[in-house]
Amino acid sequence: VIPAAGLGMRLAASSDRDPEPKALRLLEGRSLLARSAAVLAPLVEHVVVAAPGDRLDQVRRQLWDLAAPFVVVPGGRTRQASVGRALDAIDPSVELVLVHDAARPLVPRVLVERVIAALDDGSSAVVPGLAVADSLREETEVGSRPLDRSRVRAVQTPQGFRLEVLREAHRRADTFEATDDASLVELLGTVVTLVPGDPLAFKITRPLDLLLAETLLAGR
Ligand code: C5P
What we know:
- With 220 residues, the chain is of the alpha/beta class.
- Helices cover 30% and strands 21% of the residues.
- The chain is built from 7 helices and 12 strands.
- The strands form 4 sheets. Strands 6, 7, 10, 11 and 12 form a 5-stranded mixed β-sheet that branches.
- Strand 2 (26-27) and strand 3 (30-31) form a beta hairpin.
- The longest helix has 12 residues, at 109-120.
- It is globular and about 50 Å long.
- The mean pLDDT is 95.
- The structure holds cytidine-5'-monophosphate.
- Cytidine-5'-monophosphate (C5P) binds at residues 3-6, 22-23, 50, 75-79, 82, 101-103, 203, 205.
- Residues 3-6, 22-23, 50, 75-79, 82, 101-103, 203, 205 line the site of cytidine-5'-monophosphate (C5P).
């Protein structure tokens, strides 16, 4: 499942009132979505993309050479709603699902394989996590207090799940909004397995991220 329906307001120039949706932005001539999908496709049986509702045909055209069968469904107002709609399009006989942000186009294949391996080993929910470089503080009512950075991980995608677990988590979430799928699965009491993440799986959120991705691609 590739959620790709976000607008990318943090990436757009502040003067741009109607920006190209983030996942459709080009990076060295190829969209973020097409790049992400191309990494995942050889490792899965089907791809479901949640795309901006007014861009379905454009997205289908961008994926013409994908190495797996795919469907494109209209996304929702939030990432969670977009993933929920994509899950509705998956055949119930499917056992395992990966959810990967279109906005992480440089995700290395080995990271996807690591997540799949953890699912094959029996985990119901798998997330890649990276150690955090900065010191961390939490805001309090009067000021702030430090957090132990050695105990936290920045969470990436792809995240892997048994399909029935992720479906149930989305059903139960109701009005609870989470920024990733592992946080929803937690609501069911399911153990979430961490595997090492990869710096190259960074999410393109702000202009600096796009610049980094362009520089990395130019150096390849
Ligand atoms: O906004 P953020 O960068 O966290 O989005 C992560 C991923 O979720 C992106 O690939 C984005 O396209 C997707 N998304 C979505 N539907 C939304 C919002 C975000 O599919 N309504």
